[in-house]
Design brief:
84 residues, mainly alpha, elongated
Length: 84
Amino acid sequence: TIFMVLTLIIAVPSAVKGFNYIATLWKGNIIFTPAMLFSIGLVSFFISGGLTGIVLGNAATDIQLHDTYFVVAHFHIVMGSASF
């Protein structure tokens, strides 16, 4: 239960950040420069890591997914997006 609460405490501000990233691009004049493509890729990477974190935040599914490659993939997605 403690890990579930801590995961969801992290998930809420991260969801707000992801929403702000997407809302910044909404109805904007997007020019696909290399920097913009990198930024869009980073945001999609960040969101996919966050969605897998919400799945692991549920205690019932975390029990089923414990010691699987899903947890390994979530860790690497989150650490990969955090390194940028």
